[in-house]
Amino acid sequence: MRPTKSRSWFTRFAKRTALVTGRPYTFLMAVLVIAVWAITGPLFGFSDTWQLVINTGTTIVTFLMVFLIQSTQNRDTEATQVKLDELIRAVGHARNELLDLEELEEEDLDELRQTYLEMAKKARGEMEERRKARAEGRG
Predict the structure, then answer these.
(1) Please, which pLDDT band fits residue 57 given cuts at 50, 70 and 90?
(2) Which residues of 127-137 are buried (b: 16+ CB within 10 A; e: fewer)?
(3) CB 101, CB 113: distance < 8 Å
(4) Hey, how many other C-beta atoms are within 10 angstroms of the C-beta on 112?
């Protein structure tokens, strides 16, 4: 079921860009660009044009990277959600109504979260009672 190559040119481009930009050598290249820019400051008299070059370059790169990062994050989140849904579906006593939580309204999510917080609090209390019972039995 796993495709060997994405059909969308944008998906292929976003994946490749995310892979390349996440590497240490890419970070070092960016540091090198900044260093070269800083070193050339005195040559250009720290002019407005010299400053504009780095400001424009970083603004453009940042603007484009926001979209690429968001695309990659959306794809990763959706894949994770599908995997979690499959795990919920596959577990025998799981609550299948939890499969599409991301589609619920905020109030509904808050209510479910409170239910699970209460369950956790109860479980911790029971665990503490068992711990105390074991300690009293030994003492």
Answers:
(1) very high
(2) eeeeeeeeeee
(3) no
(4) 15
Instruction: Name the nearest CA neighbour of 75 among 13, 22, 121.
Output: 13
| Confidence band for 35, pLDDT divided at 50, 70 and 90 | very high
What are the two backbone dihedrals, phi and then psi, of residue 98, each rounded to the nearest 5 degrees?
-85, -5
Pair 14, 68: CB distance under 8 Å:
yes
Closest of 92, 110, 88 to residue 100, by C-alpha: 88
Which DSSP category does 136 fall into? H
Note every long-range contact of 72-75, with CB atoms under 8 Å and residues 24 or more positions apart, other chains counting: 72/14, 72/15, 72/18, 75/11, 75/14
pTM (two decimals)? 0.60
The tally of CA atoms less than 13 A away on the side-chain side of residue 40 is 13
Please state, in angstroms and rounded to a whole number, the distance separating the CA atoms of residues 98 and 123: 20
What digits encode the pLDDT tens for the residues 102-118? 888 899 889 999 999 99
SS (H, E, C) 117-134: HHHHHHHHHHHHHHHHHH
Residue 103 DSSP symbol:
G
